[in-house]
Amino acid sequence: MSGNFPKDKDLFVFKDEGKMILITDTGSPGSSDTQDDDDRVWRILITDDEEEVHQATLYALRDTKILTRNLEFYHAYNSAQALDILRTVPDIAVILLDVVMETSNAGLDLVPVIREQLKMNDLRIILRTGEPNQAPEIDVIRDYDINDYKLKSDLTKKKLYASLTSAVRSYKQLRTIEDSKKGLNMILQASSELLTQEGLNNFAQGVIIHIAALLGVAPEGVICVRRRDQHVEEDLMIIAAAGDYCSLIDRPLSEMSESITSRLLRESLDNRCNVFHKTGVALYLGSHTRGDMSCYVASGTPISDVDKGLLEIFCNNIALCADNISFLESLKDYAFTDTLVGLPNRNALEEVINRYIDQKSDVPYSLALIDIDNFAEINAALGQEYGDQLLKTAADRLKARFYEPNTVARVGGDTFAVFGPTSHVQKKALLQPFVNPFQIGGELQLLSITAGIVPLTEIQGRGSEAIKDASIVLKQAKNQSRGQVVMFHHKMVDDARSRLQMLRNLRSAFELNQLFLVFQPKLKLSDLSVTGFEALIRWKDSSGRFVSPGEFIPLAEQSGLIIRMGEWILRNAIAELALLRAKGYMNTSMAVNLSVAQLEHPDVLEMLMRVIGENNIDPSFIELEITESIAMGDIEANLRRLEKIREIGFKLSMDDFGTGFSSFTYLQKMPINCLKIDRSFVNRSNTKSGREIVEMIVQLGKTLGLNVIAEGVEEEVQGVLLKEMGCHEVQGFFYAKPMEREQLHQWLAARKARG
Ligand code: C2E
Ligand code: CA
Ligand code: CA
After folding, report:
1. Which stretch, 19-33, 181-195, 548-562, has highest mean pLDDT?
2. Which protein residues have their CB within 5 A of the ion that is ligand 3?
């Protein structure tokens, strides 16, 4: 192997202060501070049975760098392929895993295989589904350490980037911890084994072997000493060698042909420092009794930062390892400290919590997890260095606020932990370090945090369980109460469970066709003729209880189920309209509620075309009721969609008007036909101020040339008032309740009979 090195131009020399000096072949030194990550990548495995998802993911992430490295993608279309890749390709950082593939649970089933059989605990898993009722149980998320859980509708660049960045960050951190733990064990073992070696040559031989093992390469290297007090010309002697270098044992270094190896060794001995090179490393092993010593080991590839750190510790202490306790301690520090922010890491926190549990103390303790809101976005927008600086400052502030007996740790990318007496770990105290803006690089940045607190009495198990449980609280807080500090209560887990249960029931009710529609008439105020109907969905669950759509529609919306369910609703509403028309009710329209999630779905236009095509119905008889919340998303894109929907011929109505955010200018831009006054205003129209508001809305609608309808009319007087104000139409229990189809037909027939 000797003399077989690629022709390199640059050598990196690490001086004691850790600053790098660049030495080129011409011998002129230059300076470089940056770590070159350019040829390193993060490996991402996309596992999905739909080719479009692969393409969409690639497209969204094209030219994207995360933490200074490029991404390298691997593709699997089923579990078997995914396993194959995981087994053969090393260092995959993140798997984007589809839940439903060859079976409805294929993705989920893969998770225990990854964790338990392949023992891949660093790999970050991001589950993706079309609908979250395919979501795994909380227990699964917890037990298998699933990083994130995303809907496929979240395939936007921004969202993908944010979740991948946090996954990669946490992978990197886990790897560092894992690697240093492994390295630590090896060093400990190496040191104790080295102690039993007899004679310098054996010792030196052992050093080569152990360093090679530490680097995970075959032992290939030499140890060279500079003999002192000898007035000989060549004072550099090779005292031990392994692999191809064996023949050089006990020969002077000058006998080795000029090569990177000899150069690195000289460099290391002359400067008394470690010299790292792409293909190998010369480690300075100073020793007063044995003279200066340097060990060269061929690594073949550049050495990672973790390995460099470990090697440095190894070298600094190798000569002293015999009886120096502080050596072991400094190694321990390395495996239990987060090197970026200088706080205890997750390992260390686990130990602290375990110690507390074992002490059976009377003082109640709590664990808080604190997460910086939008950190991934900040990081993406302002750069990783800026992000690191923010983390360091946050760590410092937390440390300053929570001193002994509290422990502050960093447990994830942007997640910190505080463990201490419950009386200390309180909402206000946790928020305090983040009250003042952070000044980084001359810029002021206000950070908001979300935190979850779990009293240790609520936790079964050890430190690692405590951290997992706190993570669940944090996750829920992030979803529901971003920017706040949330206390753990059992209701949280129960709520999450029962929502998940309801979602599952809803899904199966939907699949089993147990949902149905009711129809509520709308009437013209001038002559009380029926102008149309609003279709409303109903669900009677297996216990016979009617679940309010106010309860389950949001669930369907969050889970994505609304996409299919909404299509079903529209189809059935249109079928009913067709039936009514066939019965001679020609001039009536059908209103259907359209959720924002439906409007924002990429296929909404095709869906609408498809459904009207099936029934061959004129879309101008169909009114889609949308709410002002569409203004909260991508307004411009939503407006364009609405324009297209109008072009197809549908009518559009602004539902629940007055409760949302739309401004007058915005309203002017909306391609709507109708304004529907929210029933809360109609309710209050009995009072003077309430009446004024309703009147104002009616006027607004008329000014914009819109049809104005009032919903939720429950009393005759309200109808009279609305008519006086010039409102066009009404809908409400006073006139007619929502009815099932047979009842509706009876109601209509009865009216007809009355004339
Ligand atoms: P919404 O669109 O504002 O629907 C009107 C709601 O007011 C309906 O409640 C209706 O039964 C109720 N209502 C009608 N007249 C009166 C009245 O005089 N007094 C009172 N107090 N209430 C009246 P429902 O059916 O429980 O629906 C609640 C909400 O659930 C709806 O509000 C809508 O946002 C959503 N929803 C219902 N069905 C669907 C659907 O098919 N698709 C979608 N996307 N959302 C739906
Ligand atoms: Ca409505
Ligand atoms: Ca409404």
Report:
1. 548-562
2. 655-656
Ligand 1 atom closest to residue 734's alpha carbon, by position in its atom list: 18
Q: How far is Cα 679 from Cα 676, in angstroms, rounded to an integer? A: 9
pLDDT in tens, 430-462: 999 999 988 876 777 788 999 999 999 888 788
**Residues 234 and 358 occupy one common structural domain:** no
Domain coverage including residue 263 = 195-331
CATH of the domain at 480: 3.30.70.270
Residues 238 and 317 in one domain: yes
- Which candidate, 609, 613, 709, 699, places its Cα nearest to that of 657? 709
Q: What is the pLDDT of residues 227-238, one digit of tens each?
A: 665 555 557 888
Q: Which range has highest mean pLDDT (164-173, 279-288, 452-461)?
A: 452-461
732 lines ligand 1 (CB under 6 A): yes
Do residues 118 and 253 both lie within one domain?
A: no
Total structural domains within the chain: 4
DSSP class per residue in 267-299: HHHHHTS-EEETTEEEEE---TTT-EEEEEEE-
**Ligand 1 binding pocket includes 537 (Cβ within 6 Å):** yes
Instruction: Tell me, yes or no, whether 32 lies in a domain.
Output: no
Residues 204, 295 contacting (CB under 8 angstroms): yes
Q: Is 598 in the pocket of ligand 1 (CB under 6 A)?
A: no
The phi, psi pair for 545, rounded to 5°, reads -85, 140
Judge if the beta carbon of residue 264 lies within 6 A of ligand 1. Answer: no
Q: How far is the CA of 660 from the centre of ligand 3 (A)?
A: 12
pLDDT in tens, 710-726: 999 999 999 999 999 99
* Residue 278 sits in the same domain as residue 146: no
